[in-house]
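Weekly modeling sync, notes
Attendees: S.R. (lead), two postdocs, one rotation student

Agenda item 3: backlog of single-chain predictions. S.R. asked that every request posted to the team notebook include the full sequence so nobody has to chase files. The rotation student volunteered to paste the first one in as an example of the format we agreed on. Action items at the bottom.

Example entry:
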Amino acid sequence: MNIKTYRYYYIPAWRKLRSFLMKSSPRWLIFLIDLFTVSGAFLLAYLFRFNFNIYQVDLYKIFEQLPFVALISIIGFIVFKPYKGVVRHTGWHDVKLIIKSSGFILIIMLVLTYLTRNGIISGPFNFPLSVSLLTFIFSVILMIILRLLYKSFYYRINKTEQEIINYLIYGTDLPAIQTHELLSKDLGKRYINYGFIGDSPAKTKKNIQGIPVLDLESINEKWLTENHIDELIITSTLENNLFPEINKFMKFKKAGVKLRIIPPAHQWVDQIFKPEDIRELNMEMLLERNPILLEDEGILNVIENKTVLVTGAAGSIGKELVHQIVHYNPHRVLLLDFAESPLYELEMELLSGGNKNIIPLLLDISDKKSLRRVFSEYHPEIVFHSAAYKHVPMLERQPCNAVRTNIMATKFLMETAIHYEVEKFVQISTDKAVNPTNVMGATKRVAELLARCLHLQSNGKTKFIITRFGNVLGSNGSVIKLFQKQIRNGGPVTVTHPEITRFFMTIPEAVHLVLKATEKGKGGEIFVFDMGEPVKIMDLAKKMILLSGKQYPEDIDIKIVGLRPGEKIYEELLTDEENIIKTDHEKLYISKVSLPDCEKLFEHLSELEEKLNRLSDVEIVRLLKKIVPEYKSHASKYVSLDD
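Predicted structure, as returned to the notebook:
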């Protein structure tokens, strides 16, 4: 234990002072200190006016006026409450309260002086103008200085015997500087900044607040190890996709440096964040793009005061749909799902958040009688259909269940929506419906065709809107979750093909675009989302291993297991016949495609529905291929049907 630490902890008087300062100073004490400060400023103003010549100062007059100045100050403090802030967290808000209360004192002094000089009132209220102004100036300056001194002293005496964290900041802009200042005041740990990392050569060989700006290329694993760097804090605020840039940070992970990132700017409170808000970087953050902001007037106009039905409400997409929908003041939201426990958890979550206008409905969308009763009783005006079977390998083995839920139940749901004059029906589709290579994709393609045909059949009374997008991060069965589990278990991480790629989007972003498509859709459109650049799954696996603090292949290996039945190497968002049209939203496009042969479609579906329970798996798939001619099986037992 060093001398400084000994002095802090073992001199009784100092220990008592430190204990007192560790607590929030009582407001009455701050009130009294401010009162004495204003009184002192008043005396100082008189001395300043007479050039500190004590013999020219009328002390009798001063001490006659001083109690009234104190009384005015008390009133000002009670009105504006500058004493209520926590002194060690003094900020601009506290400064404004000090200025307001001091300004109040100045105004009252000026008013009293005016009334006295004009004979309206009598008494010792004739304050010289210069004294009134100087009292205001000195009061503001002294109260601010005292708070800053306390704040500095508080942090200084508490920066002892803490865990030392050596860190670097990636960035040189305002968020980087704010991060440095924030960590320098953290009481839980002692942060030592070894440098800011510039994003251009022009910024290197300079310094910020005495801290050097380093060149990223000049930093290597040896330097990081020798300087015992513990953390790299990335001050990008997640406004762009960081995945392509992660390679530049891998040398830090190899040296055992923890990667952390500050929260997005829209999550800051009063333009600041806390040290505990700086999170360890993970793959979902890397793939995240622009933050989704819920204040959207266009969506509000569509959802507000409407009864909204969400099928598959307890699923990954459905759950986020519900959370965003309730933000837009619907009349009520019908939560329809067949999974009892997840539906109950969603209900409890919404109720605890103060959402009372929700109605959970535990039923299977294949249950026609119950489904019809829901529409008859609640008359939903907007339907979001996200319920579906989606796991490709499982549905390859059970095409009958895929057809029953993803096609037949969906068809009945759409027809019921038309019968009960639903305003908008939104079909949640997938990129696997494009040139499908598996049963799941084929059934979702049929649902797209159904939506377009039924839109025409309803004469536009019910507007059917299709939204098509790729993989979403964090959903049930997501490759991210699979890789995380495999890494936790020590590997290997399994990749089906070295060249396989996928599009990724965060669930909040995907759902926000679904709602924007609902707002903009006039019926019959297929909205395609801008998913960004496809991500190579092999690269994703390697980077997730490194982000976990492990090395590839030394600690965790990657095993190529071969494509699963029906799995594509590359996903697509458009069929060969489709082109896209831009909308006024940068992330939304409309697929331009000719209308399907609806009469032929309904004939095939009638045949499929009639024979479904009697047909073998192969016969069901053969009928699916008649309905969707572009459906060509891949790595599946149904490949022979394409000959």
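Discussion: group reviewed the output briefly. The mean pLDDT is 84.
Action items: rotation student to repeat for the remaining queue; S.R. to check formatting next week.
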